[in-house]
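Reproducibility note. Readers wishing to regenerate the assembly model reported in the main text can use the exact inputs given here. Chain order matters: entities are listed in the order in which they were concatenated for prediction.
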Amino acid sequence: MSDALVIFTPSGKRGRFAHGTPVLTAARQLGVDLDSVCGGRGICSKCQVSPGVGAFTKHGVTVSPDALTEWNSVEQRYKDKRGLLDGRRLGCQARIQGDVVIDVPAESQVHRQVVRKDVTARDIVMDPATRLFFVQVAEPDMHEPSGDFERLNAALADQWGIGPVDAGLDVLRALQPALRKGKWGVTVAVHQGHGIARPVAVDIWPGLYDGGLFGLAIDLGSTTIAAHLCDLRTGAVRASGGIMNPQIRFGEDLMSRVSYVMMNPGGDIEMTRVVREGMNTLIADIARAEGIDPRAMVEAVVVCNPVMHHLFLGIDPVELGQAPFALVTSGAMNLRASEVDLVAINAQARLYMLPCIAGHVGADAAAVALSEAPELSDDLVLVVDVGTNAEILLGNKTRVLACSSPTGPAFEGAQISSGQRAAPGAIEAIRIDPVTKEPRFRVIGCDLWSDEDGFGAATKASGITGICGSGIIEAVAEMRMAGLVDASGLIGSASQAGTERLQPEGRTHVYVIHDASDTGGPRITVTQGDIRAIQLAKSALYAGARLLMDEMGVDKVDRVVLAGAFGAHISPKHAMVLGMIPDAHLDQVTSAGNAAGTGARIALCNIAARAGIEVTVGNIHKVETAIEPRFQEHFVAANALPHAVDPFPELSRIVTLPNVSFNTGGDGTGGGRRRRRA
Amino acid sequence: MSDALVIFTPSGKRGRFAHGTPVLTAARQLGVDLDSVCGGRGICSKCQVSPGVGAFTKHGVTVSPDALTEWNSVEQRYKDKRGLLDGRRLGCQARIQGDVVIDVPAESQVHRQVVRKDVTARDIVMDPATRLFFVQVAEPDMHEPSGDFERLNAALADQWGIGPVDAGLDVLRALQPALRKGKWGVTVAVHQGHGIARPVAVDIWPGLYDGGLFGLAIDLGSTTIAAHLCDLRTGAVRASGGIMNPQIRFGEDLMSRVSYVMMNPGGDIEMTRVVREGMNTLIADIARAEGIDPRAMVEAVVVCNPVMHHLFLGIDPVELGQAPFALVTSGAMNLRASEVDLVAINAQARLYMLPCIAGHVGADAAAVALSEAPELSDDLVLVVDVGTNAEILLGNKTRVLACSSPTGPAFEGAQISSGQRAAPGAIEAIRIDPVTKEPRFRVIGCDLWSDEDGFGAATKASGITGICGSGIIEAVAEMRMAGLVDASGLIGSASQAGTERLQPEGRTHVYVIHDASDTGGPRITVTQGDIRAIQLAKSALYAGARLLMDEMGVDKVDRVVLAGAFGAHISPKHAMVLGMIPDAHLDQVTSAGNAAGTGARIALCNIAARAGIEVTVGNIHKVETAIEPRFQEHFVAANALPHAVDPFPELSRIVTLPNVSFNTGGDGTGGGRRRRRA
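Running the prediction on these inputs yields the following structure tokens for the assembly.
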């Protein structure tokens, strides 16, 4: 009886095996990605396969119905007790006795691909650091004394070819009861990390544990902390949640928090405490809502800017507030979660923090780089993560540059007269009729425009309360397009621009978007000060991008990616009218959503991505805006809307900006004070 | 000008060097052991050398007075400020300009030898895991951003050829202030450990730190915790101290502590807490008395028996209380001291625990093996560490065996009618006149014998309060030699043995050593029960040794080493009269003092010793007494004084034991109940 031909799909791997070979064994010998936790004992069902029957002309084989052995008692017991989908077999029990084509379904693959759900998500190939391994451990023998842990390691080596593993005292403490309760069979969660010397046993359960393994991808922002609870086996995001960063009470922006530490010795310790507490609260809330045992959360990846990085790690951030902006450490961090008091997850959970690129370009920018992979791009891509500080990446396969630019909080609706956070009632989109100069707008929480029927009723609950970040960008851009604001950023008077919505306020004018002051409601306007604030912010952003373009020796980019939660809500056309970003074809301006969070998820789910981003970050060339004289030149030139000198040919193709000028000599062009906001 | 011949003593290493070569450079190139902390900057003075002048016929060179350069300003400044012994030069500043013989004094050697002070101490070659390294770190550069820690690592690699080092968050936290305060020069304590993947930066100081580095060698016993504060540079024991193990309130012996855990869930946690607290108190007291900064204590080595090992690590010890006596882990432990709450030393200090040999033969026995090195012995040596449980090693270069034997607490004066701890007032030595049968004795705290003038006055303060462990051993042996006790252990009556000091008590007799009952003082006697207790203990000890001899296929050992604080006080002759130990020439029975503590000190001061003892322990063959039928046979046969069947030819040469027999049929021979005391 000659060996049987076995063909695995979708990999196409094939080989000949002696009759009686278990399917799992054949898969392993061929390097086919077929999962198993129990190591072939027919109890975990992770190695399910779908054998085909009949003629497979593509492969040149015909599979007879008895190509695999009949169901044995182990397999039958599993099916009776736990159920199996039709056509599925347990790869460790079914044995080969004829030529066969065997499909490995996605859920039986360790390295399965998590297919993106929307255009802003990246595909992730699963290769988590922490996996479960069931082992049968030898019982102790007085004549050959050895520790239970030494025999556990022997079993891991013998049955899985891994280890020796390290184990913390918590795991050693749990070992003896688990072995005895599990009748010497235990499931070990082993972290085979990158960046640590030896694999680590994170936890241990008696018998076969199948309660799932989870990890947290955490985007620790200055304003909000967002966490994604990810299934480490499937890569699925089980739940997401966010809270305000409780450090806000020490300062809205990062620089004010650094100042707080400078003025209040020990203030960093307090801020470290509250951010860790906040993170624990967030994680505990998510886990409770999902019914997830804290022990099952065995990993976390945290991305954040350098100041948050230091404050989270318990390191004084004052050096980051002054040149030369020295980080304590720029490297990736491999920690035990307990080192940063993350008590809401497994006591032995591992924590990975991506490397920082520089003192102003943090692990969050590294996460954006991991998500958007400019180093793999054929065309030249500009990635802009808009926030209080903008992180900017420019690059392609040849070279990647990075800088940060102090945009300030205007893009987030702060320091804007009618500005507010993105919350129900906030104007998030606005259009101004170029003829009538009348506005119409949409508020968060309602899909109707303000001139549509039912808008009043639909927004009654929330009210119309202010303008959020994307709203103010659109407002200023629309005012420019409608000829209410000139290229210098000056708001015209009612007579100059032809609408009574332009009203004097002091020596300048405001544009009234919405006025409910007669009923005690708000009067929502765009003031000259608001325009100046937006100009400062957008000039900083543009100047940063421009500096990278200089360094790269180009005056045009092929595409622009807007990252960040805020980036997802910006209208590319309006951004370009403002001159926030360099001129590009509008089709080539896309949003990447929360790219930093996506990068964190990738690092959580794929261990190789960690080594990869560490190499990438090492190759990224950092351009320091704070000391670059051309930055100031670019900044001043970028003050005009869209720009004093740079042509915007792509923009010109779709928008013709009114050639108005309201400057009567009184007000300058706004190239005012600028201070770095870290 | 040809190169100069440079000869270093005492190593004898020689080589030719270009004129102008610093002595330190020449030493390094030749592999001469010449210390330096500052890396050749002329500030640490660790590289002091003594150049010779004149004719050195042995080496065939004549050294002219100008063989080394004149004092330069750095060297002169050091001498003016800190002083240098006559004839000493700084090796990093003095340069070679002629043939020269240079002596490296012991204190300038890293791997100096600590010469033993008494016969029980082992020589230790210094090679500590943690050493100081001064580095000048590059300042941060905005254009080439990197973390301070990354530049520290670069400096360590460049200036010392070590690293990259890992650093805990505490060290990262201290890094930036230290660098700036030290003007980018810092001293790092680097632990280049065995058993850890990468070197660890334990602490960091601004500028050149010269406050010393210390380590603790801790012998964690069931009854007492003893700690030696060692200078990690010189190996000197700076101070020692001890306290009672506070776990005693949960049970005097180990088995009763294990029982406490079995009966009181959570009892192990409580015992873990108190033993760690006790250790912290002990360390803090020693450090305070010596004026040592807790930060300067950067390492600890702990040795202990398996039950203490588990309780100290916070691991439930119940499995050690029952067959098969499974350890959670038998391997050596490399921990951070903070993992076991050792807060009295540096927060980042490292803790090493020696491996355990088996469930009853712990890290303390491993430390004895490290101290006594039976695996290096040409002759066959029996090492007995006497305690509540005796650990016994037998071996030579070919093979080493180990077992433990449940001797019980009798040797420590417990369960003895007049027994007490070794404290002032306790009888520690006794002689009985073979003719008059009258005793004379010595008590702890007084050098006089009881029949010498002034004894009464000298012992007035302490009184005569009882018998300690070594006292009861001598008492029983002397009674046997004086014919008051027969070979079966039975005490004769006054008429049988011819002294009124033998008095009836119930159905048996007692020997009155001291009677102060008429003045309200104690009446100190040796009872039949005491003899039986000693017989049980010594039988267990002898049977264990005998079992190892069987396994080794010998009926005689070449020498016997008595280890343990108690072992130091036992009279070899009396021990042999009792048959505690196998027959040997008395000159070949020696005391090793606190060999476990010595082993801990060796592991603390010499990193290679850790790897060595781990290999040795792996090669030691464990014999389990609890399940070995021959143990019971040996135990019964060993009940007689000195032994029922084994001849004691060496003993016979110096002592003739009276051939008496007092058995009138009433009392048995004492092979009574025996229970394991772990």
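We highlight two features of this model. Chain A has five domains: 4-108, 129-206, 214-353, 372-409+533-654, 416-524. Confidence is low (pLDDT under 50) at residues 115-120, 666-678 of chain A.
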